[in-house]
Design goal:
The protein is α+β, with helices and mostly antiparallel strands. It has seven helices and six strands.
Length: 203
């Protein structure tokens, strides 16, 4: 039976998290991270998914995205992670399953939580004590959203565009969201754990 991805409708913003199996590493160096981002860009374009924010951690990935077609999020995550797993097995001569079977897809209320979710995602490396500031972490969307670095993977959301009339205004307003030292909380959301047979009930 073909996988079911109908739980993720078009046009809604989703916070997607995919973890390494048993919380084990899913990235092992610069090249596989670069390859993952390139594959994400290609699959997102092919499946018409707009990626607004991302971070690659050692043993999991966060994405904030909007799919233009029903079911595209599930297809994106399946194809992306299968492709990455194959390349890691070949390059690292590793055996076993790289990713957890399920991924979390959480619908975000745009007006209440969109910017908070972007901030939460890009502050992951700070919370993990990898860097002292999100701009110092290479494997996230922060440099694009806050500093204007070119990143072909990122598609700004209209709510991000509303931060200012120019790129400089928007980037400045976005940086100010990170000025506070308060520990970021994950935005409230309903979570669907999604695997090969489709979604389970929200948790």
């Amino acid at each position: 039976m073909a996988p079911s991805f109908i739980a993720h409708p078009a046009g809604v913003v989703l916070h997607v998290v995919r973890r390494g199996r048993g919380h084990a590493p899913c990235f092992f160096g610069e090249q596989d991270r670069l390859a993952f981002l390139e594959s994400l860009r290609n699959y997102a374009a092919r499946l018409d998914c707009a990626v607004h924010a991302y971070v690659l951690m050692g043993n999991h990935v966060h994405l904030l995205l909007t799919a233009a077609q029903n079911g595209s999020t599930g297809r994106l995550m399946a194809q992306l992670c299968e492709s990455h797993a194959r390349s890691v097995v070949e390059a690292q001569d590793r055996a076993g399953t790289l990713w957890e079977k399920d991924f979390e897809a959480s619908q975000i209320h745009v007006r209440r939580h969109f910017l908070a979710c972007m901030r939460y995602i890009e502050l992951n490396p700070v919370r993990a004590h990898l860097v002292s500031h999100p701009g110092a972490y290479r494997w996230s969307s922060h440099a694009a959203n806050a500093l204007g670095r070119q990143d072909a993977l990122i598609t700004p959301h209209p709510f991000y565009y509303a931060l200012g009339r120019s790129d400089q205004e928007r980037q400045g307003a976005y940086r100010r969201l990170f000025a506070a030292n308060a520990r970021p909380r994950a935005p409230a959301r309903a979570v669907l754990r999604t695997g090969p047979r489709g979604p389970s009930r929200p948790t």
